[in-house]
């Protein structure tokens, strides 16, 4: 079993920045792809950004140019740097480790990000 623990959420004004961290209890990001999802009240969970075990990143159109996903295998941690935050970025952000067809997926408990004027 692997635990994912997110941190770094909080309150920020529009235009501000936050960095989310997702720490895994075991060294998995060398073989697992990692994703950040978010879920706003009354909305479905959506994929924000992902990074493959090989380091290839992809982003939702809504965050391209503002968010950056990165990983540090030595620290078993994946990060989401969020800049130029907007009120519509307000959501609970979840870390996800994708195991593919042969390994289990893991989810973190979520961290709240609130962007307010």
Describe this structure in words.
- This protein is an all-beta fold and 117 residues long.
- The chain has no helices and 11 strands.
- The strands form 2 sheets. Strands 2, 4, 5, 6, 9, 10 and 11 form a 7-stranded mixed sheet that branches.
- A hairpin with a 6-residue loop joins strand 4 (33-39) and strand 5 (46-51).
- The radius of gyration is 13 Å and the shape is globular.
Overall shape:
globular
**Helix and strand run:** EEEEEEEEEEE
Number of strands: 11
* Oligomerization status of the protein chains: single chain
Strand content: over 45%
Task: Kindly name the structural category.
Answer: mainly beta
Poorly predicted runs of 5 or more residues: none
**Alpha-carbon Rg, integer:** 13 Å
How many angstroms does the end-to-end distance come to?
40 Å
Q: What number is the mean pLDDT?
A: 96
Give me the number of helical elements: 0
Task: Characterize the largest beta sheet: strand count, sense, and whether it forms a barrel.
Answer: 7 strands, mixed
Binned, the helix content reads: under 10%
Summarize the structure.
With 117 residues, this protein is mostly beta strands.
Layout of SSEs?
Blueprint: E1 4-7, E2 10-12, E3 18-24, E4 33-39, E5 46-51, E6 57-59, E7 67-72, E8 77-82, E9 91-98, E10 106-107, E11 111-115
Parallel strand pairs: 2-11
Antiparallel strand pairs: 1-3, 3-8, 4-5, 4-9, 5-6, 7-8, 9-10, 9-11
């Amino acid at each position: 079993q692997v635990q994912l623990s997110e941190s770094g959420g909080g309150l920020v004004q529009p235009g501000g920045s936050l960095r989310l961290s997702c720490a895994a209890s075991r060294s998995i990001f060398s073989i697992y792809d990692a994703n950040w999802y978010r879920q706003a009240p009354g909305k479905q969970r959506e994929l924000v950004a992902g990074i493959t075990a090989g380091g290839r990143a992809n982003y939702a159109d809504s965050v391209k140019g503002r968010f950056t996903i990165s990983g540090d295998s030595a620290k078993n941690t994946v990060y989401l740097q969020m800049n130029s935050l907007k009120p519509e970025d307000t959501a609970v952000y979840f870390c996800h480790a994708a195991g593919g067809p042969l390994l289990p997926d893991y989810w973190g408990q979520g961290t709240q990000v609130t962007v307010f004027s």
